[in-house]
């Protein structure tokens, strides 16, 4: 056996299917050996994982780094956002290349790669966001999938921003992507009712303050759009992915559709699982504005139920970081709050504390939700999302006993606040390894800028 570059020793290896004690041997960025008592050579780096779990690296399939939005740019750029991810046990992220109307999708992809490639600290992929459906766009779909981007995004809102897809666009895109093994992720909210309600509550914006954001985006605006998108997926045979699902009613709709055999999957995010709309009533309620907005406790419970029973298959974050100065631009008008929260850095430990620690999820199920399912559905498995011979050595040494209180000042993110400030966690990543390189230790980034690579992902992702 050739000399190993790295051995993770004495840990409890966790995959979606199994938990077992083993050493993990790494050579040239790949897992090459799984066994007992692996012997290091003089130049082999050893990471001791005794008493700890060894997880496959977390995969966050929904981040917005360096995103121009609401007259500003999200505070975590590709460098710092991927550093933050690494510190939180995430070794792969997928961001978005958003088409400009009148321009080809590939132009947006190339521009996004120019921003990301020199700066990413872990591996990353891109979704292609379609905002302009025309013969040129249709002809690009297969080309984009062959390029390594089999997943597309469409917004059922943001009419004024020029991002919105109407029903005809969504129908056509579902039809075309299905031919080539792609899928469509949708931001599902009912635009006309939503825009009407926003203006209605804005008339009394001084009265409502930040809570106007919650009042103007009721659950039925998400439910209706999810039901509609599901109908178009059912009619076309396309594969649909509901991003950042926030409602119990939406979860019910996905459940019923999957029972009928519709090819639909769903993700949710920590903010929808752990927070509720009472946060908007506080002094700093405007900080929590995201889109879709945080809902009611019963919605959180239904989402947890969905994660437990398979209605919801993936946890992601929709990370879109704005600091307190950027959020202050709202100046009392909830329509002007930059939407978004920091989240990639705290996803894995939050979900461990709440999912495993408080709700009885197995560690294997946690791994499926934050690593294996994302890898499979988004065309990265088995290179990512598992611990197996030949897989990328993306590993997280996770201490189930480590106690951490979330404080923004201790996090890598550029945000000066956290929606989970003061939350007490039990269980935290202590070492993150990206393709065989240690990139984070004890919450501090120790890797290299530019280490990450663009992932060419495979089509026909399924669970």
Question: In brief, what are we looking at here?
Answer:
It contains 14 helices and 19 strands. The chain is an alpha/beta fold and 463 residues long.
Structural description of this entry:
Helix content is 32%, strand content 22%. By secondary structure, it is α/β, with parallel strands linked by helices. Strands 1, 2, 3, 4, 5, 16, 17, 18 and 19 form a nine-stranded mixed β-sheet that branches. The protein has an eight-stranded parallel β-sheet with strand order 6-9-10-11-12-13-14-15. Helix 3 runs parallel beside helix 4, helix 8 (219-236) runs parallel beside helix 9 (248-259) and helix 9 (248-259) packs parallel to helix 11 (297-309). It is globular, with a radius of gyration of 21 Å. The model has no long low-confidence stretch (mean pLDDT 97).
What is the tally of helical segments?
14
At the first level of CATH, what is the class of one domain? Alpha Beta
- Overall strand count: 19
CATH evolutionary superfamily of one domain:
Metal-dependent hydrolases
Amount of helix: 25-40%
Mean pLDDT: 97
Apparent shape: globular
């Amino acid at each position: 056996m050739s000399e190993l570059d790295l051995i993770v020793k004495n840990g409890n290896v966790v995959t979606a299917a199994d938990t077992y004690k083993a050493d993990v041997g790494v050579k040239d960025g790949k897992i090459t050996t799984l066994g007992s008592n692996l012997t290091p050579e003089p130049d082999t780096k050893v990471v001791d994982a005794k008493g700890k779990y060894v997880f496959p690296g977390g995969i966050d399939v929904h981040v917005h780094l360096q995103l121009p939005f609401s007259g500003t740019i999200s505070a975590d750029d590709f460098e710092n956002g991927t550093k933050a991810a690494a510190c939180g046990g995430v070794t792969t992220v997928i961001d978005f290349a958003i088409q400009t109307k009148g321009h080809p999708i590939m132009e947006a992809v190339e521009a996004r790669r120019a921003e990301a490639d020199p700066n990413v600290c872990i591996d990353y992929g891109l979704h292609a966001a379609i905002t302009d459906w025309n013969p040129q766009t249709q002809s690009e779909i297969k080309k984009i999938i062959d390029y390594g981007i089999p997943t597309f995004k469409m917004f059922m809102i943001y009419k004024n921003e020029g991002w919105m897809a109407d029903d005809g666009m969504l129908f056509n895109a579902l039809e075309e992507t299905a031919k080539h093994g792609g899928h469509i992720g949708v931001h599902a909210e009912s635009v006309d009712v939503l825009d009407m309600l926003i203006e209605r509550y804005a008339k009394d914006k001084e009265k409502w303050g930040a809570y106007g954001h919650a009042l103007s985006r009721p659950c039925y605006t998400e439910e209706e759009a999810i039901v509609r998108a599901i109908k178009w997926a059912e009619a076309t045979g396309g594969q649909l992915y509901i991003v950042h699902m926030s409602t119990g009613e939406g979860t019910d709709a996905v459940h019923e559709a999957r029972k009928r055999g519709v090819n639909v999957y769903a993700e949710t995010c920590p903010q929808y699982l752990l927070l509720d709309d009472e946060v908007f009533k506080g002094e700093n309620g405007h900080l929590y504005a995201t889109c879709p907005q945080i809902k009611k406790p019963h919605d959180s419970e239904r989402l947890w139920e969905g994660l437990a029973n398979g209605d919801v298959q993936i946890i992601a974050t929709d990370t879109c970081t704005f600091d307190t100065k950027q959020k202050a631009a709202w100046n009392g008008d909830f329509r002007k709050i930059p939407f978004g929260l920091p989240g990639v850095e705290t996803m894995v430990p939050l979900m461990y504390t709440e999912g495993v620690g408080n709700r009885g999820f197995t560690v294997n199920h946690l791994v499926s939700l934050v690593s294996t399912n994302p890898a499979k559905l988004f065309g990265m498995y088995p290179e990512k999302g598992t611990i197996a011979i030949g897989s990328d050595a993306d590993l997280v040494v996770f201490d189930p006993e480590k106690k951490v209180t979330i404080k923004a000042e201790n996090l890598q993110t550029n945000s000066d606040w956290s929606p989970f400030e003061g939350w007490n966690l039990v269980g935290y990543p202590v070492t993150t390894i990206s393709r065989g390189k240690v990139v984070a230790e004890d919450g501090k980034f120790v890797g290299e800028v530019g280490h990450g690579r663009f992932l060419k992902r495979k089509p026909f992702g399924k669970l």
